[in-house]
Amino acid sequence: MGAKELEQVWANMARAAKRFDGDEREPPKLIAVSKTYGADDIVPVIEAGQRDFGENRVQEAQGKWPELRAQYPDLTLHLIGPLQTNKTKDAVALFDVIHSVDREKVARYLKKEMDAQGKNIPLFVQVNIGEEEQKSGIAPDHTVEFVRYCREDLGLDIQGLMAIPPVGEPAAPFFARLVELGKLAGLSKFSMGMSADYETAIEMGASYVRVGSAIFGARDYG
Ligand SMILES: *Cc1c(COP(=O)(O)O)cnc(C)c1O
């Protein structure tokens, strides 16, 4: 798994992008989700030209990315998993984009820590689009107000919305709902789509797709 699969994903993305018939937008970007995989698996994917990578745990990312970034200074690293507030400092130091702003406390901690480090990292608000009990994210009904709070009260650079639709249901209606919410909130970037549904997500307007197993293979955990 690795470079060959990456090229297949790129090709599928390009085809799906042609089927998108919304307003003009930048071509969707691929985030290669490398969680649970180490440098030996990641390096061939970097060498094949991939530059955006995603991790869901701050501590795991700290163990492998500083060295890889020193070797490849032009990488962009995305945090796609839940952020514990006691990891905010490390997350702000390591990541270039954070996709998982999922509650007020996280937003406030990020603001404080970014001020301390002199940064204003691009952020996505994670929406609990399927309104699932066990999933993190802002409730759809509260999303517009939460985005307003983050932007106006805290001055955060909110770029768009992120969601993980419920497992075992068609994803398209949830992607559509996320795009609707984005319009209401004045946002036009969407972080949506994983290995099973990234083409659908792109057809519906995704700006970032987060693809792991289709590139790196099935994970043992994560
Ligand atoms: C693991 C993960 C992905 C990638 O999942 P695949 O099904 O392996 O493509 C995408 N988004 C988030 C938030 C993840 O945790």
Secondary-structure map:
Layout: H1 3-19, E1 29-33, H2 39-47, E2 52-55, H3 58-71, E3 76-79, H4 88-94, E4 97-101, H5 104-117, E5 123-127, H6 140-153, E6 158-163, H7 172-185, E7 189-191, H8 198-203, E8 208-211, H9 213-216
Parallel strand pairs: 1-2, 1-8, 2-3, 3-4, 4-5, 5-6, 6-7
Helix pairs in contact: 4-5, 6-7
Would you give an account of this structure?
An 8-stranded parallel beta sheet has the order 7-6-5-4-3-2-1-8. The relative contact order is 0.17. Helix 4 (88-94) links the parallel strand 3 (76-79) and strand 4. The longest helix is centred in the N-terminal third of the chain and has 17 residues, at 3-19. It has 222 residues and is an alpha/beta fold. It contains 9 helices and 8 strands.
Summarize the structure.
Pyridoxal 5'-phosphate (PLP)-binding protein, which is involved in PLP homeostasis. Belongs to the pyridoxal phosphate-binding protein YggS/PROSC family. The protein is an alpha/beta fold and 222 residues long.
Question: Strand tally, please?
Answer: 8
Biggest sheet layout: 8 strands, parallel
Query: Ends: how far apart?
Result: 18 Å
Low-pLDDT stretches: none
Q: What gross morphology would you assign?
A: globular
Percent of residues in helices: 40-55%
Q: Strands of the largest sheet, in order across it?
A: 7-6-5-4-3-2-1-8
InterPro entries: Ala_racemase_N, PLP-binding_barrel, PyrdxlP_homeostasis
Family: Belongs to the pyridoxal phosphate-binding protein YggS/PROSC family.
Keywords: Pyridoxal phosphate
Protein name: Pyridoxal phosphate homeostasis protein
